[in-house]
Amino acid sequence: MLVLLPPSEGKTPATEGEPVDLSALSHPALADARRRVGDTLSRVSGQRNAMRVLDVGPSLADDVARNTRLWTEPTARAASVYSGVLYDAAGMAQWDNATMHRAHHRVRIISALWGAVSPADLIPAYRLSMATTLPRIGGLSAYWKKHLDPHLTEVADGSVVVDCRSSSYAAAWAPRDAPWLAVRVLRELDGRRTVVSHMAKHTRGLLTAHLMGYETAPQSPQDVADAAASLVGASLVDVALEARNQGPDHLTVVVAG
Fold first, then answer.
1. What is the C-alpha separation between 15 and 111, in angstroms, rounded?
2. Interval 52-61 mean pLDDT
3. Residue 224 to residues 13, 188, 228, Cα–Cα distance (Å)
4. In this structure, what DSSP letter does residue 164 have?
5. Cα 158 from Cα 48, distance rounded (Å)
6. How far is CA 141 from CA 3, 128, 148, in A?
7. Nearest to 75 by CA among 116, 112, 37, 25
């Protein structure tokens, strides 16, 4: 099983630790691609038009300034640097060593800067979206699409890929040689089911943590659906698996409103 997550927009900077070692991150063969994006990000973030290029508002000026110190900033596990709704719901920063070991092999966070990292990888905080277009690099989803396939295909190893990404991050890689399952979240209220983005992130975080609790990873879409179904009555009210002719199959999980 390979679980694909988006990064969080919000990140918690490390307060101590060594600078990032690109050769120590998962998939060290991506080091040159990561260095190119990081060098460009650092340079652009020091320019007068940085906020416009990165498409951020004045409240994120400190985050953009931190980008200029990317190679000297302290690092922490990605599990604690990424700190948005999904990661808080998963309790990822508090995972014990056994769970983190499983996640290191089963989870990849798709990143505009790093390409793909595991929750155990040591990274600094940064500000960069996959929707950004960087000078001389272009759109980042297209850039990473050229680099990620052999690495993520190897991690998936033919077993099920559980996709919890948003659309811009999903564009960076699509599985070819493994069953592929996209997680959809609906809210049920007064007999009606609707899509809600905040609750979707929270629910995907709960599901990720639940899947990491299995010593033997689910290997098929039905295995994942069965694992999710064990949450019905606790976090969920319904789970449905839908096979599709194109793209990923859909795992729809329904939460109470």
1. 21
2. 96
3. 33, 22, 6
4. -
5. 47
6. 18, 12, 10
7. 25
